[in-house]
Model the fold of this input.
Amino acid sequence: MTSPIVRFAPSPTGRIHIGNARTALYNWLFARQHGGEFILRFDDTDKARSKQEFADGILTDLAWLGIEPDRIERQSARFADYEVVTADLKAKGLLYPCYESGDELERKRSRSRARGLPPVYDRSALKLSQEDKDALEAEGRKPHWRFLLPNYKDDLFAIERTEIHWDDLFIGPQTVDLGSMSDPVLVREDGSWLYTLPSIIDDAAFGVTHVIRGGDHITNTGAQIAIFKALGFKSPEFGHHNLLTGSEGEGLSKRLGSLSLEGLRTAGMEAMAVASLASLIGTSYAVEPIAEMQGLAKMFDPHKVSKSPARFDVAELEGLNAKLLHALPYETVSDRLSAPEGVDGALFWDAVQGNLEKLTDADRWAQIIVSGADPLIDDEDREMVSLAITLLPQEPWSHATWMEWANAVKAETGRKGKGLFMPLRKAVTGSASGPEMSKLLPLMDRDTVVARLS
Done:
């Protein structure tokens, strides 16, 4: 395979969610696997809704995931190119004006359904004379513009089956019948472009070789291949991956802030936990935390992606996040870990990492090391804990100190097992669970522990 050129094309009208991230990841992984180029293209033709703050946020989200674009493009800077191609299509009669309102089009579709016919546009606008068009525009109507699909021979209204084929990267050979489709609208009444035409023009101009996107675009592909051909452009290869839904099977949208990358990051999720789950869920791979993006790139295989939608469950992400943290070396978190002042960061990480679900959970243990914890002492253990204070070894402490203390308390009280260790843990940490005490206790100050227990 020659080096591929792919693109991820979000609209900067909001922050990207986990479903968008899946598409971005699959494009990036495919490019990196084959030594290709990843283009970030902002589809910002909607001037009213596109915001620079959202574009900046998308860049931040992608960088957090580990995706650094090789090239950044903005459709808002390319209107002149779109105008040229639009005018050419109009001159060739391949882009024709239509004057029906939305309500009129819906009534047409309803009548077709009632007659048992597919709700396909009937091309009645092509029967309008210039006088008809002038009269409609005099009424204040403005046309939207449709692309004339090549699904006929000599008679524009004798639509026939016209198959478009492509070998999809993810789901194999695909066929779309242009004869079953309405001529797609490419230009709105206000003169602005819908997604399709600018995207095709850009894909050709930027040399995009592979379009990797969600399965909700499959039905659009036939018409888009036809437009590529009409413009004399080489069509890229297409790949449509399965979609992600929420845990209840609901569709994802930018309104689901909890599943936005910004929301997941704010909630304390690790980038590689998010990338691992977004990439591996709904595939034949086991969903495991992959420590580096290069590892995901080596694994990426479109043929291992299921055709069925995959459910993204935050609870599964939380478990994956914990599993990732438990395996990370200190060097990968050292710049983000808030170790207690005066405590070796590597020793602190070794002590607490096995009990973390999120990295910020380490802050609680840092506070306990610095200030101690409010003791959690059951009534039946008060006498034992009071005695234990007097038996607490003098500093310096080591990994052996915890067992030395426990053995001393055992010798005086006869307690053993859980009845020995649990009261001591709860008294020192204020919790019935947590890091190994043999690792945690040496990081603490004896006077602080004694002061809390006295």
Q: What stands out?
A: The chain has three domains: 1-73+242-327, 83-180, 345-453. Residues 253 and 287 are 24 Å apart (CA to CA). The longest strand covers residues 37-42. The domain at 83-180 is CATH 3.90.800.10 (Glutamyl-tRNA Synthetase; domain 3).
